[in-house]
Design goal:
- The complex is a heterodimer of chains A (111) and B (116).
- Chain A has strands at residues 9-13, 18-23, 31-38, 45-50, 55-56, 61-64, 70-75, 84-92, 105-110.
- The model of chain A has no long low-confidence stretch (mean pLDDT 93).
- Chain A has a five-stranded mixed sheet, with no helix packed on it.
- With 111 residues, chain A is mostly beta strands.
- The N and C termini of chain A lie far apart (37 Å).
- By secondary structure, chain B is an all-beta fold.
- The mean pLDDT of chain B is 92.
- The chains are: A mainly beta (111), B mainly beta (116).
- Chains A and B meet through loops of A and β4, β5, β9 and β10 of B.
């Protein structure tokens, strides 16, 4: 799986959009970008994934650059419950291997 | 969505004893389950891959005789930490792959193991 780079921490005001960047310059053509988050002392939670088109679901939006070397996860209206560590992972969709977690971004939502 | 449970959520044991952790897929059948370990302020590290009806595959550096994995059914995998020592204290998390085409992984809530 390709390696990803994320900022170690970010702050965001409650109610504002949280934009979390991820660099994945060595991503392969068949690898998707996945985002998970882990709230303190809980198991990771799947958020969203995409290949090259922007994706949106009830939790977030995923914007992938045209060259696919970076992406941004957007939480449109952050709440205090969104405080968590967010992990960006690139992998083949449908792969049956375990996930490789980097250090992620610790997002802190400020009241 | 698919739900994965773990039991117990917390366990404290004495050094030298063995501890069993269960991982269950509640509303789907899981052909493959994974076990991860997470030390404080660190990221999750994959320990092993468990396939129903076959032997688990362990990551490099994980002792297979110490961390026994059994995946006897499509809804249950167990991790037994044998002869536990304080350095085994950690947060153990399992995940399961569903039988649908996306092979998405669903994570359990984790088990906090403290070895005294």
């Amino acid at each position: 799986d390709a390696k990803t780079t994320q900022p170690p921490s970010m702050d965001c005001a409650e109610g504002r959009a949280a934009n979390l960047p991820c660099n994945h310059s060595t991503i392969s053509g068949n690898e998707y970008v996945y985002w998970y988050r882990q709230i303190h002392s809980q198991g990771p939670q799947y958020i969203i994934h995409g290949l090259k088109n922007n994706e949106t679901n009830e939790m977030a939006s995923l914007i992938i650059t045209e060259d696919r070397k970076s992406s941004t996860l957007i939480l449109p209206h952050a709440t205090l419950r969104d405080t968590a560590v967010y992990y960006c992972i690139v992998r083949v969709e449908g792969g049956a291997d375990g996930l490789t977690f980097g250090k992620g971004t610790h997002l802190i939502i400020q009241p | 969505g698919a739900v994965v449970s773990q039991h117990p959520s917390r366990v404290i044991c004495k050094s030298g004893t063995s501890v069993k952790i269960e991982c269950r897929s509640l509303d789907f059948q899981a052909t493959t389950m994974f076990w991860y370990r997470q030390f404080p302020k660190k990221s999750l590290m994959l320990m092993a891959t468990s396939n129903e009806g076959s032997k688990a595959t362990y990551e490099q550096g994980v002792e297979k005789d110490k961390f026994l994995i059994n995946h006897a059914s499509l809804t249950l995998s167990t991790l037994t930490v044998t002869s536990a020592h304080p350095e085994d204290s950690s947060f153990y998390i399992c995940s399961a792959i569903g039988t649908g085409g996306a092979n998405e992984q669903f994570f359990g809530p984790g088990t906090r193991l403290t070895v005294l």
